[in-house]
């Protein structure tokens, strides 16, 4: 009779341990999404970075043309990452970066991804 009781306790302990470990593996959230990466070489964006060199410059379609030609054919996330890399090299005033990047993307007729911010 004691062996039957011990067997029930062993099975109950085994099932409890399995439920706890399976619960921990299922409770983990998905990994965070990776930040977009610019597939083009940053040296190519020197001409684009001239657009951002001065904060007083008026950004229009003609001044943004070098940036637009470099990001042509890229999806919105990659294009945003490329222009952010060009901005990061030249601007130290971090408050205006997102405004300028969004303005350049709009002039290039690219919609930035939802919630996009230059990091």
From TrEMBL:
Domain of life (superkingdom): Eukaryota
Leader sequence segment: 1-27
InterPro entries the record matches: Bifunc_inhib/LTP/seed_store, Hydrophob_seed_dom, Plant_LTP/defense-related
One Pfam family named in its UniProt record: Hydrophob_seed
Keyword Signal: yes
Domain Bifunctional inhibitor/plant lipid transfer protein/seed storage helical, first and last residues per copy: 38-118
Keyword field: Signal
Protein's name in the database: Bifunctional inhibitor/plant lipid transfer protein/seed storage helical domain superfamily
Source organism (scientific name): Arabidopsis suecica
């Amino acid at each position: 009779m004691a062996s039957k009781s011990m067997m029930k306790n062993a099975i109950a302990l085994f099932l409890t341990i399995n439920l706890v470990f399976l619960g921990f593996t299922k409770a983990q959230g998905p990994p965070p999404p990776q930040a977009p990466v610019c597939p083009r070489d940053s040296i190519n964006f020197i001409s684009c970075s001239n657009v951002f060199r001065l904060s007083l410059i008026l950004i229009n379609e003609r001044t943004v043309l070098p940036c637009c030609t470099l990001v042509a054919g890229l999806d919105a996330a990659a294009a945003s990452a490329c222009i952010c890399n060009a901005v990061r090299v030249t601007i130290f005033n971090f408050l205006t970066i997102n405004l300028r990047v969004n303005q350049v993307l709009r002039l290039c007729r690219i919609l930035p991804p939802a919630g996009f911010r230059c990091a």
